[in-house]
Structure formats: C-alpha cells, structure tokens
Write a structure and sequence with these properties.
Distance between the termini: 31 Å
CATH superfamily of the largest domain: P-loop containing nucleotide triphosphate hydrolases
Number of helices: 11
CATH architecture of the largest domain: 3-Layer(aba) Sandwich
Helix content: 25-40%
Strand order of the largest sheet: 6-7-8-3-9-10
Structural class: alpha/beta
CATH topology of the largest domain: Rossmann fold
CATH class of the largest domain: Alpha Beta
Largest sheet: 6 strands, mixed
Radius of gyration: 19 Å
Number of domains: 2
Strand content: 15-25%
Length: about 280
C-alpha cells in the first residue's frame, strides 16, 4: 500500500493513537494515552515538565519504539509500516540539529529526496525567503545560530507537504519576525489540510492557534476537547484563559509532583534517549 492509497477520507483521522504507554526503568512516562488528530486540526499538547509530551511526540514520530499500544498515521501503523507512516509526517524538535557539513540548500535538497518531492527548487526558494534564510543558502549547518536552525527546520518541514506536522516548542530561539512568520505558516499548513500537533509551554500561543486542547500530566490524559469545552468542564467560567484552565486541570496532581510520585523523567534527557536506541 502506498501513502496515496491509504484511507484519507474526512471520517478517518490523520493520526490515531490508541492506548500508548511508555516506561523508563520503573517510571511510566506515558500511560494508556489515546487521541486522534484530523485533517486541518491544530491540537495543542500541553502539560507540566515531565508530563510525557516529548515522549509522546517521539513515539508518534517513530524515534522511540512503540512499547505498548498503537500509532497509525494516514492508515499506516508506525510499528508495522514505518516507512509509509513516516513519509506522511514531519517532526520539528525543540532544538533542531542540522548536519554540520551540509549547507542550508543541501538540507532542502536532501529533504526533497527523502520525501520524493519533485520540482522542489521554487518551493524551497519561497520558504527560504519567508523564513529569512535566502542569504544563507551556502551556510553550513554547523554555522547557524539557534534561531536559524529553527528556521531551517521549518523550511525542511514545509517542503515535504506533510499530512502530519509535529511541533515541539516551535518558537524557541526565534526573533519577533520569525515568530510571526512561524505562526502564520502553522495556520496556513492546517488550512491546507494537514493535521498539526503543537506542543508548547507558551499557553498564549497554543490558545491563539489550537482548534483543540490535549492536557496531559504524569503520562495520562486529563482533558481532550475544544477550549470552549474546557471552560465548561474544568473552570465553569466562560472567559477562562488556557492558563487558568491549565492550572485548574493540573492542580489535582500537584501533591504527587511535589512528592515525586509518578513523575516522568526529563523527556529531553540524552541518556534516556540513548538507552532506548541501544
């Protein structure tokens, strides 16, 4: 089955996660987590540090093996049909690390080859202009600043026309102009039919962009629904901000965090990731 032949009808979600669980040593980082993301949706994934957000994204992206449960992208199971599933997605981590020896333009050429994008050059030039990297085409990945690395990751992500876009703290390191460009680009890719997961501690950003909110803590789901539904079910106040909703939803777990019970390890820990790869 090719990606084009997968079930992409409106009724079928682009991403389907069912009973996903992940354990590091004796600690459960993700616990029986299920959710869907449909075409054109922007799912805001929020939770305290160590709640399982990045572990969830890495599992969906296939960076971490599926320990329990299932992840399906465009009808392709990530564990059983990894190649076709990964062709449908792009993941932008919170601190992208480009290849030191490849230029900015060579990164785009490599991405086009990886995703089999024909006639990629005009689109690449457009993206480089949009994210203010046109004059850095020949710069090596190892020469780029933090913000430029983030912008290059955006260019590569958008070039492949992904059906599913995973964004982990996407505005980290960006200047105000870059933030504005990124926000507009996220809205546009969703309006073109992509499913987007936006994970961020910047709750104002999530509130402004997300069509649905998924709040997790201690690896489990606390809430999944629209902001309006969250206001009715969590704060019972029509004008509640996402920040107020977040604290109301997670306060019940506060004592467990203070005692260290059930808290996931630091998700960005290189040691934890290396253990999974070995």
């Amino acid at each position: 089955m090719t990606p084009e032949s997968a079930d992409t009808s409106e009724a079928a979600p682009v991403l389907s996660v069912r009973h996903l669980s992940k354990t590091y040593d004796e600690t459960r980082a993700v616990c029986d987590l299920s959710f869907d993301v449909g075409s054109g949706e922007i799912l805001g994934l929020v939770g305290p540090n160590g709640s399982g957000k990045t572990t969830t994204l890495r599992s969906v992206a296939g960076v971490l093996p599926i320990e329990a449960g299932s992840v399906s992208i465009c009808g392709h199971d990530v564990a059983r049909d990894e190649e076709h599933a990964k062709r449908c997605l792009t993941w932008v981590p919170d601190d992208p690390q480009p290849f030191d020896a490849l230029t900015v333009e060579e990164h785009l050429e490599f991405t086009a080859a990886l995703y089999r994008v024909e006639g990629w050059e005009p689109r690449a030039s457009e993206l480089l202009e949009r994210f203010e990297l046109a004059d850095r085409r020949g710069a090596l990945g190892g020469e780029l600043s933090r913000g430029m690395r983030q912008k290059l990751a955006f260019c590569c992500a958008w070039l492949g026309n992904p059906r599913l876009l995973l964004l982990d703290e996407p505005l980290s390191g960006l200047d105000p102009r870059g933030i504005r460009s990124a926000k507009q680009a996220i809205l546009e890719v969703a309006s073109d039919g992509a499913a987007v997961i936006l994970s961020s501690h910047l709750l104002e950003l999530v509130e402004a962009l997300a069509t649905r909110i998924l709040i997790i803590d201690l690896g489990g789901k606390l809430f999944d629904g629209t902001l309006a539904e969250a206001r009715r079910s969590i704060t019972t106040h029509e004008g509640s901000s996402l920040e107020e909703i977040f604290f109301a939803a997670t306060d019940s777990n506060g004592a467990r965090h203070e005692n260290g019970a059930g808290a996931a390890p630091e998700e960005e820990s290189p040691e934890a990731l290396e253990k999974e790869r070995s």
